[in-house]
């Protein structure tokens, strides 16, 4: 659930124009003008007490026709601007009114603005409670709001705006953003009015879901996030205590019923209910008993009776599969063993190849707890890794490698199996490393010339580079042949790799892996000469060049700085360029090499002294 933006219709309504997009004209024109005057008056006031009185009066006036006022695009925006100045009691009163009785149904099913107002109030109340302002009042208000939502929870979470509101309420009750798992940032802004986001979507290859459904972007970002999350499924991933445990327990109690278990399968497949269920699973992650009860309820009442067909059908559903992904990441160890055996036994390869189920396989691999579990999965997948790479299911291979690295088992076997699979791709690829760099790409690495395109369009595979990073992070006995093959690429190809957003991370990972071998570092840096300025034009590339500069000896540092000086005009106009130029002392180099060397030597001594003091 990312930042929530107002639609074009709302923008038109904000201008006060009538009859457009249905967002304006909910209030008579003279009443809209009244709120616009309040907005103008607010900008003139400097005294906090006067601002509070103005805001409270506006909230009281809006309360006389609440749904109409908050449903108007112009008025709702004015109310949102007034919220930071309103008293806590005024905010509580409006939240209570919006979530009571028939108003709640109107908030969930009407225009997006009332739910947006309610979400904004929830966020402000959370902030004020943490600041120690009226904590008991806010606690009671949140409990009452939760009771109202739970009064008809299924109806609320199966509507677009009700789903957003319930997820925001859940995040406030827990005290952190539970819409994206434990790696998410706390205290998120209001969510997007017109769509959803997947609570744990491992985005790699496929878009999944309809316009209003959770979507997987065609990037490797979601996979990277999940692999990082999977790197610690124990205490380090724990999110801590719940801010409002009683209200959360009441919400859970309203769900953990026999009636809900009967409807759970349909809710898991509902575009709007599924994201809420994912958020609820993340919210319960640190409570094994609650997690087990919730998962049992979602699977029809008990995990003991769940069948392979039932679980596999959910994995292959474009919406329910998101819920299964989170289940595999949050369930306790005993339940994970039961569900992984039930879900994958005899069907691992089919599910790993499926457009939607492959993400559940990735989630399970990235969360596997025991070496024996990983070994069984690896044995099922090993003969089919090349098939998965060809079928654009490389995310499964990446998750397998991450699981092996996290558990410290099967690392050499997994790396060797991936080597054989990448080598079996054939075509114009000149080996496993070029095959992964060009994975799913129409043009192989060998045919990409120095003018393959601007930075970020060099034709390298984001998924392939993610796989190589995983491989190069393995112990040397597992990663050795991959590292040697990368270093053996022709300099022109290495420069092309370094000029790619994902490729530069591959080279950086290699350099960090071999940094104790000065000879290998020097050879790689020498091969990259002529491409430093091009590589530095992006954010990840600038960081990569900085890393290379830090690892280089004086001669290589000078070579890097001289190339950056030649490309200075292009770099100063980029976001990260000026900082990189300063870090490499490029301006000093304009005064001569001797002055530059003296400056670099002085900076190196100062940096070492700093490290010695604060190491």
UniProtKB/TrEMBL annotation:
GO MF assignments: RNA binding
Disordered: annotated span: 1-29, 180-241
A GO BP annotation: ribosomal small subunit export from nucleus
Entry keyword Repeat: yes
Superkingdom assignment: Eukaryota
Keyword Thylakoid among UniProt keywords: no
GO cellular component terms given for this protein: 90S preribosome; nucleolus; preribosome, small subunit precursor
SMART domains attached to this UniProt entry: Pumilio (SM00025)
Biased composition (Basic and acidic residues): 7-20
A Pfam family per the record: PUF_NOP9
Gene3D superfamilies named in the record: Leucine-rich Repeat Variant
InterPro entries, alphabetized: ARM-like, ARM-type_fold, NOP9, Pumilio_RNA-bd_rpt
Keywords for the protein's UniProt record, in alphabetical order: Repeat
Low complexity compositional bias, start-end: 180-191
The protein, known as: Nucleolar protein 9
Organism expressing this protein natively: Auxenochlorella protothecoides (Green microalga)
């Amino acid at each position: 659930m990312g930042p929530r933006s107002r639609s074009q219709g709302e923008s038109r309504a904000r201008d006060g124009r009538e009859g457009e997009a249905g967002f304006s004209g909910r209030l008579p024109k003279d009443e809209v003008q009244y709120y616009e005057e309040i907005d103008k008056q607010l900008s003139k006031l400097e005294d906090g007490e006067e601002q509070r009185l103005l805001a409270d009066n506006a909230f009281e006036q809006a309360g006389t026709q609440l749904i109409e006022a908050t449903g108007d695009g112009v008025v709702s925006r004015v109310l949102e601007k007034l919220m930071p100045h309103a008293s806590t009691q005024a905010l509580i009163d409006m939240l209570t009114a919006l979530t009571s009785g028939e108003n709640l149904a109107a908030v969930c099913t009407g225009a997006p603005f009332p739910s947006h107002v309610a979400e904004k109030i929830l966020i402000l109340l959370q902030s004020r409670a943490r600041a120690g302002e009226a904590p008991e009042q806010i606690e009671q208000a949140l409990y009452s709001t939760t009771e109202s939502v739970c009064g008809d929870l299924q109806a609320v979470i199966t509507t677009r705006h009700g789903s957003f509101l319930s997820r925001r309420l859940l995040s406030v009750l827990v005290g952190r953003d539970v819409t994206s798992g434990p790696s998410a940032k706390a205290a998120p802004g209001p969510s997007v009015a017109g769509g959803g986001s997947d609570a744990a979507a491992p985005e790699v290859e496929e878009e999944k879901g309809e316009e209003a459904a959770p979507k997987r972007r065609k990037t490797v970002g979601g996979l990277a996030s999940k692999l990082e999350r999977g790197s610690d499924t124990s205490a380090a991933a724990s999110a801590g205590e719940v801010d409002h445990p009683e209200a959360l327990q009441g919400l859970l109690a309203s769900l953990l019923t026999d009636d809900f278990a009967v409807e759970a399968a349909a809710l898991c497949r509902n575009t709007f209910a599924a994201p809420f269920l994912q958020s609820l699973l993340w919210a319960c992650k640190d409570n094994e008993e609650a997690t087990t009860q919730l998962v049992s309820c979602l699977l029809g009442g008990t995990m003991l009776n769940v069948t392979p067909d039932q679980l596999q059908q959910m994995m292959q559903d474009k919406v329910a599969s998101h819920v299964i992904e989170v289940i595999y990441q949050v369930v306790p160890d005993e339940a994970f063993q039961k569900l992984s055996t039930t879900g994958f036994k005899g069907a691992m390869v089919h599910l790993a190849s499926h457009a939607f189920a492959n993400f559940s396989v990735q989630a399970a691999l990235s969360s596997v707890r025991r070496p024996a579990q990983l070994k069984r999965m690896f044995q099922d997948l090993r003969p089919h890794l090349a098939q998965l790479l060809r079928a654009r299911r490389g995310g499964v291979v990446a998750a397998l490698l991450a699981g092996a690295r996290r558990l410290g088992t099967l690392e050499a076997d997994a790396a060797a199996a991936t080597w054989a699979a990448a080598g079996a791709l054939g075509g114009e690829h000149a080996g496993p490393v070029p095959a992964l760099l060009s994975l799913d790409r129409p043009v192989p690495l060998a045919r990409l010339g120095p003018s393959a395109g601007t930075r970020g369009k060099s034709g390298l595979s984001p998924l392939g580079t993610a796989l190589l990073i995983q491989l190069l992070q393995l112990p040397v006995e597992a990663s050795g042949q991959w590292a040697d093959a990368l270093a053996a690429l022709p300099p022109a190809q290495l420069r092309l790799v370094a000029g790619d957003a994902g490729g530069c991370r591959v080279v950086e990972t290699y350099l960090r892996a071999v940094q104790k071998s000065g000879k290998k570092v020097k050879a790689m840096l020498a091969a990259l000469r002529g491409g430093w300025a091009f590589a530095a034009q992006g954010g990840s590339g600038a960081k990569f060049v900085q890393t290379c500069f830090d690892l280089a000896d004086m001669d290589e540092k000078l070579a890097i700085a001289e190339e950056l000086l030649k490309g200075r005009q292009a770099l100063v106009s980029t976001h990260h360029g000026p900082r990189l130029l300063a870090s490499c002392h490029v301006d000093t180099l304009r005064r001569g090499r001797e002055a530059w060397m003296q400056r670099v030597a002085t900076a190196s001594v100062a940096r070492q002294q700093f490290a010695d003091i604060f190491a």
